[in-house]
Amino acid sequence: MRTSIILALVVVALLFIFNPDIEDFKQFVEKRSEQILRTRAGDSKLGRILSDIGSSLAGSYVDRITERKNYLLFSTYHIDLDGPDERENEWRFLGIGGRFIELDRPSSHENENRAD
């Protein structure tokens, strides 16, 4: 019983420590954007340059369009590209343990591979 309580406290402490913040999310978006853009633009020299520029821009501006809710042990991230009145271009992510899990994406992006 005592070991279970200690183990649970350790898990809670680790989740609290590794709860990703908005800077972590910006890095995640930049990396993910680069992967998506490189897939679409190709692996040519021009494709790499364009994907590097595009992903850098995405990472730079994502905090302006992202709503983060911090629940201490995990966080949720909501990106809404078309404003609060529309539901066409929304993504939702769960940030937990230093990782990001995609929860929802726009229907126009349903065929893309989910990666975290």
Major sheet description: 4 strands, antiparallel
Structural class: alpha+beta
The secondary-structure element order is HHHEEEE
- Provide the β-strand percentage band: 15-25%
Name the helicity range. Answer: 40-55%
Low-confidence residue ranges: none
For the termini, the CA-CA separation is 36 Å
- Sum up the overall morphology in one term: elongated
Strand order of the largest sheet: 1-2-3-4
Structural domain count = 1
Quantity of strands, as a count: 4
- Helical run tally: 3
Gyration radius (Cα, Å) is 17 Å
Mean pLDDT, all residues: 85
Description:
This protein is of the alpha+beta class and 116 residues long. Helix content is 49%, strand content 21%. It has helices spanning 2-17, 22-41, 45-65, and strands at residues 66-70, 75-80, 90-96, 99-104. A hairpin with a 4-residue loop joins strand 1 and strand 2. Helix 2 (22-41) runs antiparallel to helix 3. The radius of gyration is 17 Å and the shape is elongated. It starts with a helix and ends in a 12-residue tail after the last strand. The mean pLDDT is 85.
